[in-house]
Amino acid sequence: MRLVAVIIFALMTAACDKEQDITGSTTPTCPMRNYSYNPRDINQCVNACRVCDRGTTVTCTTSCTLKGAR
Length: 70
Fold this sequence. Notes:
70 residues, single chain, elongated, 4 helices, mainly alpha
């Protein structure tokens, strides 16, 4: 019985696939972030998030606020 439980658990964890975060740093080489970008400026941070991470205004505003942009 334990062997069956271990096999089922192993198959379930092997089937899991880590999804990519949309607003994460998936493209660290985004040109907007390489020059003239101030991550503490809320407007610049939101624009960079929308362009580079394909985020929405709401999620990018929240993300930038949590990172300390004002």
